[in-house]
Amino acid sequence: MNTIATGADRAQGTIDRGIQRAGTMPVDKYLPYEAVGLPDRTWPGRRAERAPLWCSVDLRDGNQALTDPMDIDRKLRMFELLVAMGFKEIEVGYPTASRDDHDFLRRLIETDAIPEDVVIQVMTPIRGDFIERTVKALEGARRAVLQVFNPTSEIQRRVVFRTDRRQTLGLAMDGAEQALKLQESIPGTEIFLQYAPESYTHTEPDFALEICNSVLDFWAPRAQHTLRVNLPATVEVFPPQEFADRIEYTHRNLAHRERTILGVHPHNDRGSGVAAAELAVLAGADRVEGTLFGNGERTGNVCLVTLAMNLFSQGIDPMLDLSDIDGVRRVVESCNQMPVGARHPWAGDFVYTSFAGTHQDAIAKGLVAREQSGQKIWDVPYLPIDPRDIGRDYQALIRINTQSGKGGIAHLLRTEYGIELPRRLQIDFAAVMQQVCEELGGEITGAQLWSHFEERYIRPGREAAHSREAAVTVPGTGSERWAELGRRALAAAGLDGFVQGVSVERAGEPLEAVTAFCELVVDSHSFWGVGIADPEDQAAALAVGSATRRALTAAEGDDR
Questions:
Q1: How far apart are CA 195 and CA 218, in angstroms?
Q2: Separation between Cα atoms, residue 548 and residue 543, nearest integer Å
Q3: Residues 228-246: tens digit of each pLDDT
Q4: Cα separation of 478 and 514, whole Å?
């Protein structure tokens, strides 16, 4: 088996490897996986072009992993959500495993709650009485997938069931025969047959293929409908590229492939369930089973929201409605009684939020550039999608703490208060807020940001009434008059300085007024003032008054 040299291996001789201690973990307890060996694999050269057939298993695999399994009311809310999102296949339970699963299935059927374009799925182990009871529970349903399964892995054959390959294959064939016999036993119910070799990832690839092909060879000449094989990564035990190789190996050699839907059921034990599912589809899988936000046994099932959003971000229709992703999350959290993590891909509270100053600056500039260009294609730094496409807004994109910079602060003032700060004022206020954040610790809200901005740059001007009066007596027009106003204010205050500049602009919502900015320079130090009023002359006078007041306060040794 080929191995990949690590950076440390390549640097041997130039780095003191003694720094990294070896032998602290009992690695000799574990063996590496045996690769299926597919040198002519084709999946690396493919790319996703459409969504696979999705099947939600929230109501079965997800539910059985909850500390407090869903009651019927919570299951109904989950089922209604899945239907509203656009799922066409939904696994609704394991009817012989619990009375709750059986009663929920009957409730759906008897209340006609299953839309005509939705196929429900039930599962049963290969035991004669279990298969019969499961099929009987489907009476009255329009269409359903009946999945029969038996464990096939070497460790389970050897330790759990004490059977060999021949006996394991015989059990699968017994189940296939009984499922076929019962397929037409319920008039008016169309049943699709699906076989799953449980613990597929622990099963020898050639044996898993042998069992699947034997079942398909038996069903194909006798069953009228499409056939199905579902390959579960019951436990994820090797990297996603190996899973893809095994799926392509099966895809190439699967009997009756033209009439068989090949599905996968990835889990996330190694943290690569999403990658495994995506590569499996490239390798030939038609269908993916998973849960919303990855709930499930141990580390969970593959997250269908992440898979669907990954496609959406590449311009591929995910065939699921995630336009209100927070609404979906709220229902799932309520039904599962488990929170979705704040950093969960695409849906967490923080996934479109930046605290770092350089990121904030790039996002803010990207949004402005997009607005000015009017381009359709989304292309904004650090934001792989437009948050508005999934029901979010831009308010939470940038949040302020000690890591933030001028770009983020300017963005918040622009988006929440309609004020576009001059660049030099951005730098001045960023330094102020850096000190504030360090003193207070944690995050600063938009309201707190505005309070500090108002106190430092706006409020002092309210005490400088003489500046407002001066506006009507100063000659000139526009910026000339405002600059002269600044010079007179400095002279009246007995300060030796000059006016760096006075500018005005109309603020957007919610202020909807003229905003003036004044920069005075006294003893090589800049002092900014901001005025908000109508008309322009009054706003400019307020800005000059604010800047002058700040300069006076500094001269008295108490600049805030």
A1: 12
A2: 9
A3: 999 999 999 999 999 999 9
A4: 13
